[in-house]
Specification:
This protein is mostly helical. The chain has a domain of 98 residues: yst0336 like fold, CATH 1.10.3560.10. Helices cover 52% and strands 6% of the residues. The protein is built from six helices and two strands, in the order H-H-H-H-E-E-H-H. It has a two-stranded antiparallel sheet with strand order 1-2. It starts with 17 loop residues before the first helix and ends with a helix. Belongs to the PBDC1 family. This is Protein PBDC1 homolog.
């Protein structure tokens, strides 16, 4: 378990040191690239992101019955005062149960899109897990694997044609 902050530490008063921000950004981009690489190799519908995917999915559907994994996420709504409170309550259920549950990561706004500057939202990892587990359950990420497989097949055909 990671060490906790000193009792006198107040996050809301802490300086955002540029080097720390860069380290968080690098880690988030690494996680994003790793996840995309996995989706290229394995259909999302057969992927498990945690040991408790079923529980996370059921909890998401119970706490956010309006959530539709197929539509574009409304970032303003998600990050509104009410949205933040709902998500914070959801995420706190996984404190000490899911590693790095509150660590920042990047999620695509819509499952039909690739990662890009305009197509992504910076979120806590638990939010990423909940959203991506739902998308995978509904087969919404399978297109990534299918596209990659076709690209690999085309590369093989091109290489064979050159021989």
């Amino acid at each position: 378990m990671p060490p906790s902050a000193p009792e006198t530490f107040k996050a809301e008063e802490a300086d955002n040191l540029e080097d720390i921000e860069k380290q968080f950004a690098v880690k988030a981009v690494q996680q994003m690239a790793t996840y995309w690489g996995i989706l290229e190799k394995v259909p999302g519908s057969s992927l498990r992101l945690t040991k408790i995917d079923d529980e996370i999915y059921d909890h998401l559907m119970r706490d956010f019955p309006e959530f539709d994994p197929a539509v574009t996420i409304n970032e303003d709504e998600m990050k509104s005062k009410v949205g933040k409170e709902r998500w914070r309550k959801f995420m706190m259920a996984y404190n000490n149960r899911v590693d790095d549950y509150s660590f920042g990561t990047i999620v695509r706004s819509n499952p039909k899109w690739e990662y890009g500057n305009e197509e992504t939202i910076f979120v806590p990892r638990m939010q990423f897990y909940a959203i991506e587990i739902a998308r995978n359950r509904h087969g919404l990420n399978n297109w990534i694997h299918e596209k990659y497989q076709k690209e690999q097949e085309n590369l093989s055909l091109e290489a064979a044609a050159k021989e």
